[in-house]
Amino acid sequence: MGNGGLSPNNPFTLFLILILLVLSTKPEAEQHLTQLAAFIQATQHSVQVFRSGLETFYAAAKNL
To answer: Whose CA is closest to 19, among 9, 29, 31?
Structure first.
């Protein structure tokens, strides 16, 4: 296939197949994936705020 197609050597292909299999066999899986996505987004936001705080701290400490 082309550059954007599914390739057997691409690790994301196996992940996509696994997700599709889970979604087709467990009806509640979509809700769990939605909750996982929300958790990951909240974690990403927390890390960004923490990093910004550290950068501010280092900038203030550098001026001392």
So the answer is: 29
